[in-house]
Specification:
Blueprint (H helix, E strand, L loop, with lengths): L1 H20 L12 E3 L7 E2 L3 E9 L4 E10 L2 E9 L4 E8 L9 E11 L4 E11 L6 E4 L4 E6 L5 E7 L4 E7 L11 E5 L2 E4 L5 E4 L5 E7 L5 E2 L5 E2 L2 E2 L1 E4 L2 E8 L4 E5 L14 E5 L2 E4 L4 E8 L4 E8 L2 E2 L11 E8 L3 H4 E3 L6 E2 L1 E4 L2 E7 L10 E5 L13 E3 L4 E3 L11 E3 L10 E7 L7 E7 L1
Parallel strand pairs: 2-8, 34-38
Antiparallel strand pairs: 1-3, 3-6, 4-5, 4-7, 7-8, 9-10, 9-12, 10-11, 11-16, 12-13, 12-15, 13-14, 16-17, 18-19, 18-22, 20-21, 21-25, 22-24, 23-24, 25-26, 26-27, 28-29, 28-30, 28-33, 31-32, 32-37, 35-36, 37-38
């Protein structure tokens, strides 16, 4: 035991000794780094791979040469070269191709550092312009077409008797000189983006000869199918889906333009009271909503928003309630069953007084002989209604508790109940007594 004690003591003494004598000292910068870069930066365009040559020397070993490009105060590009010895080094730095950036003067800074961290810098003002391309190329699946300058700044157009009004394509530029490169423009997140080749969903409202246009500065392109919601253009997500985030007032008149077949669309009575083809009154309470138009399925999907995101149910009973599960779907179960897929969750219509409703039709938007879905506090997993927080006053639908034929909170049809084919049922969740004391009612109209 004594030996162990003395050994531990010796370690402590040594540690104290080292802590007293082993002081950390900073490296003292030494040497005399010399950097020579000639001004070689003329006729520079957005999108260039800009070459440079630099001569570097020092009396002690060098470390790195870094080129940094600034737009104003913002660093937009950087490249670093390892400088092992004195001599001449070459490299390139990328000039970004960005939307809406005007022609202007950037700052290109070179920083040479030696192994003691002593450094020297040299900077240049570099005028950068958007290239005036002689042409662009419109690339479709089976062909390509030249897009020529229209005379408007940065705008190009291909005017052809295209084989179809539906013309998915991406666009690319030529390389204007040795330092230039091809720039491609495609479709991402519902807009034209640089650097992708996903097809842009061009659609012409007329057949025959039409023009496809593109602006290399603003990225404005066309033609696209347009839908106007109360005079506001809906945002194109893809060629099948359009959406708009809008403040709505209960009872507000709505006019939808641009859908020639709107008389054939399925209209959700929870949100729209149809007056005529394309003319409606808004049913739910006043608030902010996302209206989505699905062209193939011919229906409007409506979701309550909080800020710019789908709303959640708040502790005070306001917000939104969502449905996820099987045997229910809009505009029909067959076309778009929700299933256990949160992105397809149905938003119940807030009708006021902390009540939320969904109207379903037997055999169309709800199965007649079996159901298995539940109510959630948000568009996704998380808060949900279970048998302890939701009760049913219905003689048609029960709330599962995990031992009565349904998982906790899942809804099912009572024994021997079959919903009537074609009949309309209004399901209401009332949280006026609290979100932990919700009551469900089901009314056949």
């Amino acid at each position: 035991m004594k030996k162990i004690k003395y050994w531990i003591l010796s370690i402590v003494v040594l540690s104290v000794a080292f802590s007293c004598t082993d002081e950390i000292t900073e490296i003292e910068p030494k040497g005399n780094p010399v950097l020579v870069v000639e001004n070689q930066f003329a006729n520079v365009h957005f999108g260039d791979e800009l070459p440079f040559v630099a001569s570097v020397t020092d009396e002690i070993p060098l470390s790195t040469l870094t080129a940094i490009l600034y737009f104003g105060e913002e660093e937009v590009s950087r490249t670093t070269i390892r400088t092992k010895e004195n001599g001449e080094y070459s490299g390139t730095i990328s000039v970004p191709f960005l939307k809406d950036i005007p022609d202007g003067t950037a700052t290109l800074e070179f920083v040479l550092v030696n192994t003691t961290l002593k450094k020297v810098t040299q900077s240049f003002d570099v005028p950068i312009t958007r290239a005036a391309y002689p042409y662009l190329i419109l690339v479709t699946e089976n062909s390509s077409y030249p897009m020529l300058p229209t005379g408007q700044p940065n705008e190009y157009a291909a005017t052809e008797a295209f084989p179809s009004t539906d013309l998915p394509a991406y666009i690319k530029t030529p390389a204007v000189d040795a330092k230039g490169r091809e720039i491609v423009f495609g479709w991402e997140a519902g807009t034209v983006m640089e650097g992708v080749t996903t097809f842009i969903p061009f659609v012409s409202p007329v057949a025959g000869t039409f023009a496809v246009t593109f602006n290399t500065k603003t990225y404005q392109a066309g033609p696209f199918f347009e839908i106007l919601f109360n005079g506001q253009k809906m945002h194109m997500v893809d060629k099948s889906n359009y959406e708009i985030d809008v403040d709505m007032t209960q009872g507000q008149d709505i006019k939808v333009e641009g859908l020639e077949d709107i008389a054939n669309w399925w209209i959700d009575a929870d949100f729209f009271d149809q007056k005529a083809a394309g003319e409606f009154k808004f049913v739910p309470i006043t608030g902010k909503y996302r209206i989505s138009a699905n062209l193939p399925l011919k229906y409007f999907r409506v979701e309550v928003l909080q800020g710019g995101s789908p709303a959640s149910l708040k502790a005070d009973g306001t917000g939104a309630i969502w449905i996820i599960g099987q045997n229910i779907g809009k505009p029909s179960v067959q076309d778009r069953e929700v299933g256990w897929e949160p992105s397809r969750a149905l938003c119940m219509a807030p009708v006021g007084n902390k009540k939320y409703q969904i109207t379903v039709q037997g055999g169309r938007t709800i199965n007649t002989d079996v159901i298995n879905f539940k109510f959630f506090h948000q568009k996704g997993w998380g808060g949900e209604f279970g048998s302890a927080t939701l009760s049913s006053n219905s003689d048609l639908i029960f709330v599962g508790d995990g031992s009565n034929g349904r998982d906790n909170g899942n809804l099912g049809l009572l024994p021997d109940v079959v919903l009537e084919e074609g009949a309309i049922y209004v399901i209401v969740v009332d949280v006026t007594a609290g979100i932990d004391k919700a009551v469900m009612t089901v009314t056949k109209k």
